[in-house]
Amino acid sequence: MRTYAGHSSARESNELYRRNLAKGQTGLSVAFDLPTQTGYDSDHILARGEVGRVGVPVGHLGDMRTLFDGIPLEKTNTSMTINATAMWLLALYQVVAEEQGADIAALTGTTQNDIVKEYLSRGTHVFPPGPSVRLTTDVIAYTVAHLPKWNPINICSYHLQEAGATPVQEIAYAMCTAISILDAVRDSGQVAQERMGDVVARISFFVNAGVRFVEEMCKMRAFGRLWDKVTQERYGIADARQRRFRYGVQVNSLGLTEAQPENNVQRIVMEMLAVTLSRDARARAVQLPAWNEALGLPRPWDQQWSLRIQQVLAYESDLLEYGDLFDGSHVVAAKTEELLTGAEAEIAKVLEMGGVIPAVESGYLKAQLVASHAARRARIEAGEDKVVGVNCFETTEPNPLTVDLDAAIQRVDPASEQAVLAGLDAWRGQRDDAAVKSALERLKADAAEERVNLVEATLACARAGVTTGEWSFALREVFGEYRAPTGVGGAPVAVAAEPGGELAAVREAVAATAEELGTGKLRMLVGKPGLDGHSNGAEQIAVRARDAGFEVVYQGIRLTPEQIVAAAVAEDVHCVGLSILSGAHAELVPDVLKRLRRAGVEDVPVIAGGIIPAADGEALKAAGVAAVFTPKDFSITTIIGRIVDEIRLANRLQPWRSAADTLSAR
């Protein structure tokens, strides 16, 4: 039983972990901030405004010591949501455990380490796919030999569903990732064939459970059957215990709503039941989001509520005392078979492309997810998929939980970023620079040799006092960096512009506005400033704007305000839309505004979207932002229409509705 936690600083997160353990948590699930996840030191330009926002900053060994101060790692099961820098964070963790006197062979826990889904959903990748798979392979080989109880990779279908995957796609693409990684380990020569069973036994999965109860439960049964088949037939694993499908769950965050957020509690409970009621497809670990995650960062009390939901099920109900309640169900058997058949067909298609890495590099997988997500959003907007409080049953009583919205979420003190920067500067000042330089040179030399496992060089870096940014930039020198396909260009039209429909009206407004401005097309830049890689919302805005007749400029994730402004000026756009879900909007959005004005761009409205608390939204508008959109604004077509209105307003044109009325009167 875990809650995903960490924020502000290593010291504050340590205090939070101790409180959570005292409340009955049976493991830790560490959230790292975006600079740590993407291999930047806290004082890097791209880390500005992101330090400690969505997790804890860990810049060096000293931070890791502080993070687990007073927590015996030999007795603690620790899950670390870390991917591109997984090897580095595991090395820091191991060194701290050694300093505590722990037997590293007894360490238990998980490094997420599924880099493939980073290219498709979360966006915290650093290196190209080939070198990234090598880093994962090296961690797996090292842990099997030295940390035999550690799960070196968590194949994450969770984030695929967040990016729009259907159940069939979620099963298929996660399984393709597992096949790619297992093939890489087998072919690396680092693990003898007779020990491949030990590798398979340490592979775990991290799965999403949505609110469609029967479908989600059957998905897990299909997952288990397919994993057993693949590991037995493709890798010859004879021991059934090693073939066991081991998975943990974070129930769905995509379906959490800002509107009537109290409804999220029953959604969370329903989703948890889908992965606990069926004994033959039961999760080994569960972490639940908080009811208010669509509003902002949850408080400790909100996380406690989610923990108590699990404890009531485990200790008060009798649900865990019986065999599988669904054995013999024709409905469950048929649905499971349907999902299994669909997943196997999609797996075959990806393997025909050469596997999951070519499917990532070609843009196929990303385009499939963007299309599925667009189709889902279209069904919600059309009312085909019901979301209580959003597109039906919208009448509501005042919510006492959100009377004071600013108090309903956790606030990260901006001063904590300065404290982290001061600590980083102090760390650099007291270490042995010669030892640091030597460790980094060894790391780069080993990276240049394809057959050398990089864990030992990484451990040497950790002990020498190397920082997170220094480790990753040493490898960037050798491996290079990677910008993943956006999937926007290949996404099909999800909403038809039917005569008399909303999209048709918006298309007319876009065309008329472009004509009045004397330009061929309206041009909109969709930008992702900072390190927030959750691009689902930005992609959907880009796709719908394209379908409404805009020329869309979308360069993907991880851009500085300077780069966004340079692109806006070069492309001569009519609107800049900024998407941020990490909480860095208060610093990055005004920065873009100021730079646009300094560049002499006065008539281009700036729109902001993301998880933006109400008070922050008002502050952004006061700073000059034309409009702010949050999860409650679920109709993307309506958003595009409002953007057209803002373009007209900025260019002193008559509002579209009034202009349309005037034209029709003529």
Automatic annotation (TrEMBL):
Pfam families per the UniProt record, alphabetical: B12-binding (PF02310), MM_CoA_mutase (PF01642)
Keyword Metal-binding included in the entry's annotation: yes
KW Metal-binding (keyword) present: yes
Native species: Peterkaempfera bronchialis
GO molecular function: cobalamin binding; metal ion binding; methylmalonyl-CoA mutase activity
Assembly mode: Heterodimer of an alpha and a beta chain.
Family statement drawn from the similarity comment of this UniProt entry: Belongs to the methylmalonyl-CoA mutase family.
Protein known as: Protein meaA
PANTHER family on file: COENZYME B12-DEPENDENT MUTASE, METHYLMALONYL-COA MUTASE, MITOCHONDRIAL-RELATED
Stretches assigned to the B12-binding domain: 521-650
Listed cofactors: adenosylcob(III)alamin
Gene3D superfamilies referenced in this protein's UniProt entry, alphabetically: Cobalamin-binding domain (3.40.50.280), Methylmalonyl-CoA mutase (3.20.20.240)
Superkingdom assignment: Bacteria
Protein keywords: Cobalamin, Cobalt, Isomerase, Metal-binding
